Amino acid sequence: MTTKAYEGTFHGEKAFWLQAGRYEAAVLPEIGANLIAFRDNEKEYRFLREPSLDEMEAFKARPIIHGIPVLFPPNRYEDGKFPWKGKVFQFPVNELKTGNHLHGFVHDIPWEVERFGTNESESSVTLALKVREGHSVYTYLPFEFTIRLTYVLNQFGLQQHISVHNEGQEEMPCLIAYHTTINAPFAPNSQAADYTFKMTIGNRWEMSERMLPTGEYQPLSSEEAKMKVGGLSPFFESMDNHYTTAPQNGRNYMELTDSREGVKLVYDVGTSYKQWMIWNNGATEGFFCPEPQMNLVNAPNVDMPADQIGLVSLEPGEVWSESARLYTIAIKK
């Protein structure tokens, strides 16, 4: 199997490319370490939504609905307020329609490429975001820490490993999600109608008009309940929904099945992610976002047990880490 790892470009932007057999992937270090492409070149599958050349300026202005953006801290915070250990950090209110802060500070800034390379079976790249006093992220989250992100490509598909290391002297919050943007269809000859999905959801959180959780659950519709077993279109209705996770057989995942091609894309995200967001752009066919998230939306402002809402903290010197993977399985048509 041929493997390669090299520095190149993606529509004019600096990119690091990985190749392993029929698979290739690209990550953009200058734009939030976004994994902007994951492809099966033999089948001509493009699993992630990639911006076209004409879309690059809009993508760079808002790099959220392409590839795999890293959100830290993820989703919304009421009035931009983030209470933590007796202090209240003030984030910018950047979603005017809700009056909230949205999506954190790491998805649109440069990350450092620490290393990249290959061996006979895989190619890989490791990127790091080192936050110290004077860093743009430190302005809002005054802690010293490093987020390290590694992508590995091999014959089995794509693996992602992320870690957060608290290198400061104070206990810090550790809240991460991905605004993962999956193509449906991902195969060139398929249509959206050929696709169904399954997702390990649990309960659906009730949300206020400001898209903040009330602390209560709301009943799943009969259609939503099908997400747990599969066979449901990703575009069955408009979704901007927040759920708890409910791992099945020890795994937390989304499966997207192309019945025409006889293939299933598996997004196995790991059990550290206690919440799912799912957004499908108003049920517009073409892509949807199954978003693994550690914490409940607005978690620091919610009076519920930290374990229940994924409000994770790291003591000085502690490291949190989790792995995820994207791969395909052939199925009978």
UniProtKB/TrEMBL annotation:
Pfam families hit by this protein: Aldose_epim
InterPro entries: Aldose_1/G6P_1-epimerase, Gal_mutarotase_sf_dom, GH-type_carb-bd
CDD domains reported for this sequence: Aldose_epim
SUPFAM superfamilies: Galactose mutarotase-like (SSF74650)
Protein name per the record: Aldose 1-epimerase
Organism: Paenibacillus violae
Lineage of producing organism: Bacteria, Bacillati, Bacillota, Bacilli, Bacillales
